Amino acid sequence: MSLNTNRVGNHPGSGHDPSQSTTISIPFSPETMHEVCRPPAKTTFQKLRHKLSEVFFPDDPLHRFKNQTCANKIMFALRFVFPIFEWAHSYNFGLFRSDVVAGLTIASLAIPQGISYAKLANLPPVIGLYSSFVPPMIYAVLGSSKHLAVGPVSIASLVMGTMLNDAVSYSSDPVLYLKLAFTATFFAGLFQASLGFLRLGFIIDFLSKATLVGFMAGAAVIVSLQQLKGLLGIVNFTSKMQIIPVLSSAIEQSDEWSWPTIVMGFGFLACLLTTRQIGLRKPKLFWVSAAAPLASVILSTFLVALFISKLPNIATIGQLHKGLNPPSSNTLYFHGEFLAVAVKTGAVTGLLSLTEGIAVGRTFAALKNYQVDGNKEMIAIGLMNMAGSCSSCYVTTGSFSRSAVNENAGGQTAMSNIIMALTVLVTLLFLMPLFKYTPDLILAAIIVTAVIGLIDYQSAFGLWKVDKLDFLACLSSFFGVLFVSVPVGLTIAVGVSIFKILLHVTRPNTSVLGCIPGTQIFQDLVRYRDAHRVPSFVILGVEAPIYFANCTYLQERIFRWLREEEDWNAANNGSLLKCVIIDMTAVTAIDTSGLAMVNELRTMLEKRSLQLVLVNPTGSVMEKLHQSNNLASFGPNGLYLSVGEAVADISSSWK
Amino acid sequence: MSLNTNRVGNHPGSGHDPSQSTTISIPFSPETMHEVCRPPAKTTFQKLRHKLSEVFFPDDPLHRFKNQTCANKIMFALRFVFPIFEWAHSYNFGLFRSDVVAGLTIASLAIPQGISYAKLANLPPVIGLYSSFVPPMIYAVLGSSKHLAVGPVSIASLVMGTMLNDAVSYSSDPVLYLKLAFTATFFAGLFQASLGFLRLGFIIDFLSKATLVGFMAGAAVIVSLQQLKGLLGIVNFTSKMQIIPVLSSAIEQSDEWSWPTIVMGFGFLACLLTTRQIGLRKPKLFWVSAAAPLASVILSTFLVALFISKLPNIATIGQLHKGLNPPSSNTLYFHGEFLAVAVKTGAVTGLLSLTEGIAVGRTFAALKNYQVDGNKEMIAIGLMNMAGSCSSCYVTTGSFSRSAVNENAGGQTAMSNIIMALTVLVTLLFLMPLFKYTPDLILAAIIVTAVIGLIDYQSAFGLWKVDKLDFLACLSSFFGVLFVSVPVGLTIAVGVSIFKILLHVTRPNTSVLGCIPGTQIFQDLVRYRDAHRVPSFVILGVEAPIYFANCTYLQERIFRWLREEEDWNAANNGSLLKCVIIDMTAVTAIDTSGLAMVNELRTMLEKRSLQLVLVNPTGSVMEKLHQSNNLASFGPNGLYLSVGEAVADISSSWK
């Protein structure tokens, strides 16, 4: 059949010649008409089961167990619970050699970072080393990532330090502070493992990449400024974490500035930043930046030890006791006034460290083309933190910088974590007295070097270029963290992200479609300049689920499109509208408010002598149209599988 | 060209014969290949402007002013601000006669209801009459609905009574209570008018119909039980609003039960409920239910006046002073400890009464085929409440029951509101002493009769049948109101509604598509039993925006579909997969996390020697793919306008 169609006049006044009109042919024959099917009938229980399995088990974790012998099932179950069995049986000397090199390399980074990050959390330096021993051993058995290097990380350390410090300061009551830190670690682990067990891992997806870019940059700025304490040699520094008190404290305490500390601190900082740049620019020289922190620690310790009599003002770590992790399960704190602080700190640090660990694990898995199971990773990270809390460790997770070094140094399996842990063990048992003269300034310099890489201004610029609302989420978490606090910053950013989803649903895109000549393809008239209007029809595309939040808007918008199309017709060819077709392909769901709206729309259009036709509703929409008896009121000519069939059949019925 | 396709074997073990295989032809010729267009280029400012105009001005409110003379523009502006000018110039005696009948009818309902609802808000009865005089006059000038009958309503009265009573009780400090009531009314009006002025009317859409069904039923149950005070003649009744204290108070105070009150109260209640049923069953007899309240008031007042000496236990309204609304603007309260209560009460009652007013206005507009402008209605309702708060009125809005009576009685314009207000004026000036012996029990019976209609169990059953999550929202607001409080119940219900949107985005529907023989239509294999797989291709449909909240899920789900398709192929024909096509028609938006996911997916599939092809991305997705340089990496064979073209072109390139 052939139809006379009208050339699109996009926007009013866009300069098109409205009189231009061509005759195009839509390929169509009545015998090719197709019915719109409903999904296979299911009981409420089946639907609920399907929905729950999609929500909680989208990856079908038990698919490997299907159609297997009993022995195989047991083996798979063992591997499922302890991923170490995935690789242990095929482990060989070649892999071991690679892992030893990688393990020693990350240990050289983990020891100075462990000490530094513990200071960031206001904890004694040795806790950082304890935390680099027990958790990596446990992760090596339970974790499914081959490249994740486990230990304390800057963000979680910072957040724990800030949140606990608001309740009690380490200097005034060190025993209580330690108790709270271990308890918070326990709750962080419990929270992480529960998310994994309950398969609620998707909750961390709500901390979108945009949010994290802003959050990490804000945290990096705050942490770097906090290090002015060590780099300037200030003794009485503020313990607040907002940018204004930190900066004013650094300036007000200028009488405490120690020039030898400043010269040495900024000198080492410059060296570390230079080696970091070298590592970034030439990936082959990654070992320069990987070895730099340990080298700086050794060098600065020597310098201070040699000149200690002449430089009494330089603060050092001081005497550290040799020995393994003491048990701490007896210090866990499950009652009393500070329990709420510990639980809240645990939840926030748990969530943040989980997000970092999972993101890092996924990044390297994608790079090396294997898959990590998010929920299993959560259980592994959670259990290692729970075990850590009983052995004097604080919150740990997979660190981005050390995992990158691990991968660069050739790490092949989780064995590199074991090698690292054993190296830390040797340090704890024999090398602790060597840190006596290690200056605080070098720890500050190491922290600044580590966190400065978290300021990802290129990603932020990318967000601005591509998605302004993502950029807004990024900015709000950045400024929230900088000026208010970590939980507030994160809450605002998650709020902005959710607002974005709601805005998208509340104000969806709608468009008038036209036919692309010679095809049955109907597309947006504004976007496809060769698409033509079909006379007597208004074909509308709706790009959203029809929900309570948008059904009023959609009704108003549809009537506005109708008015505009009527105006266009009156101005151009005087033809009358007879039929409104709604292309439901992108209407992914409908609720009871939406169903009422569709029904009301049909009645209102009927009163204006216009027929309403629905095209290609998706499965769930089709089901609900049927259940609510809406389908029946549309009649046989109210529903088609494609716009082309609808146009052809309805216009032939007018003849 | 023709392709060999495979019959769908839907679910594993669904009993299909997998060897069944047919050769179908997909109509296609290379010269009909179409390019995917990007939307016309726009600057950031243009995009922002378009987005803002869609968010705030979807109805294009100024369209009537386009291309008009200056005089016309002034006339339209006048009508725009004062809708009374829309109908005043063509008003005639016929319309007036209808409006007088309707106005007198709703006045006969409004007077007893006004007195009753004022008691519900713990206010003196006369405030209810004041509130039926000033606000209707103002609405008649500013409102755009022809059928809305304005005055106090049960829900807003109840909520105001509850929330203010938590702070201060009328019996202990009547002056402060009145001050707070007028102040709350002022803030309710301010809030309503601001929503209209700022065009934020869509906020009330978040109180979905499902939520309101549950909320109104819960409120109706509570209100009805509260009326046991009047119906049983209890003097010391609880002022709490949860179901348990109300019920236990009614039972514990059984020594205060007054049998004459009970007999008379339940007798009138039975009469009123019977007339209500008559009105519902036979719409022509609506006047029976409309006249019943006034008739009952008159009859019961007579009875009490006659037998007052023998029935001293029956509580009556008592002496009411004649006279017009006294000014109350001097009592508004803008500082001090109770300001927060007044603002909060104003916001909640304002939101609820606005929702009711707008919903009622829209219902009758749809019935009579005219449109009301939501934002203008909000301004009208807001201004009438602000004016009311300065003339001793409390919160008013459009009442469902009185509007229905208005429409039934033949009301044609807002003049019926003026007639009603004038009738109330006469009552205030001359008839007040007649209410001296009106018993409280009749007010209780009128309230029960009015609110019992709010329990819409049929709608609740419809929700259960069609949409389980809507039913859950309904239930949570019902039980929240019944057992906790009005704001908590509403917050939970809105939370459930938002959760539903987030769940839909977090776990979207995906499906494997197949070709319907003889067409270029590709549809879900599970739903369309005659659709066929295309060998070497996996064609996936994704029905959601690709956002941070679902990109991990989608990636996992796509790999699961791939695994399942590979298993199916291995079991049935041994053919190898070469190409993954994603139909993006229903992907209505994408954010930076989604773009990163698509890019990662492409890289991961490439490592498995699979080509990734996108089909028909929507305008905004196309734009972002381009801006993020993702398009370039897809190359010339990575993007098609339709699945048919993609399949045909790619499979021809393999030959």
TrEMBL record, chains A, B:
Topology in membrane: Multi-pass membrane protein
Source domain of life: Eukaryota
Residue segments, region Disordered: 1-25
InterPro entries: SLC26A/SulP_dom (IPR011547), SLC26A/SulP_fam (IPR001902), STAS_dom (IPR002645), STAS_dom_sf (IPR036513)
Keywords, in A-Z order: Membrane, Transmembrane, Transmembrane helix
The protein's name: Probable sulfate transporter 3.4
Annotated TM spans: 147-164, 176-198, 210-237, 257-273, 285-308, 378-397, 418-435, 441-464, 471-499
STAS domain ranges (all copies): 527-650
Pfam families in the cross-refs: STAS (PF01740), Sulfate_transp (PF00916)
Localisation: Membrane
